[in-house]
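Student:
Attend to each token:
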Amino acid sequence: MKHISILVPHGSSIVDTIIAPYNMLKMANSYHRKLNGLTEPLFNIDLVGINNKPVTYQGLFTINPTSSIESLEKTDLIIISPISGNLEKGVKDNQRFVDWIRKQRIVNNAELASLCKGAFLLAETGLVNGKNCATHWTAHELFKKKYPAVNLIPESIICENNGIYSSGGGYSILNFTLYLIERFFGRETAIWTSKVSEIEFDRVSQSEFIIFSGQKEHSDEPIKVAQKYIENNFEHKLNVESVAETIHLNGRSFLRRFKKATSNTPLEYIQRVRIEAAKKRLESTTDNVMQVMFAIGYNDEKAFRTTFRKYSGLSPKEYQKKYNREMAFA
């Protein structure tokens, strides 16, 4: 029988992100056995701690590991549960997991799947250096700073690299767990689990959920001034030269420093600020798409619609219908 390990991290985590995948995998395991007439389930599923001691989260919820890295010599799939709160402290508190994950991958060729900010523990192993990885959008800037050798894919809910998987985060872990169920149990079992759990199937992007607030976790103060200028004047005609002039830099130096500080070109930053403003209007007003487009500084309808979809994953009309209560029933 194969084995799945769902990690129970030390420190801070969200208990649902551990228990929900555990329950879904148990459901899939049971259904798959009945569906295929097997005498025993495909997987043995354990909640794995650093040791066997209970772990309490938020001072309220306690999980009792069913196994530990001290006693578990071999596993086939490791679900790397999210850490939360102070992520750097979380990585330090769970370093023994990091070493064990690396060993299981290198020695036993275990497959790995990080949920949400569990990507920090995955990245700490060095196993995704030079590979694609996803994590929750609120942690993108810290992740890029801490693991520059990893190719972060910001909009993705799911990334896969030769048996190493990662997910965007939040409650998209449910969609990601369905993805893993399809991968290990087959599509029929995944669809059944989706229907019983009433979870949307085949959702692969977190773009529509990202709230862009500007990348300001850097120390280049003049660039912060330029960012603020863009945010206060996005509805006007802006270009690289005019923004660079506000902080007395030539175009080439400004481009280089802006990209280094924010991981966006100035044009990308302007686009993202404008699209975030458009999203807020679409959520809170009954303005039509053209009115919103002009209000945020766009004159080209095709360019606006293309850029909006690029950063939100939806068309402006789809977004408004989904997130504006008044328009949802129009």
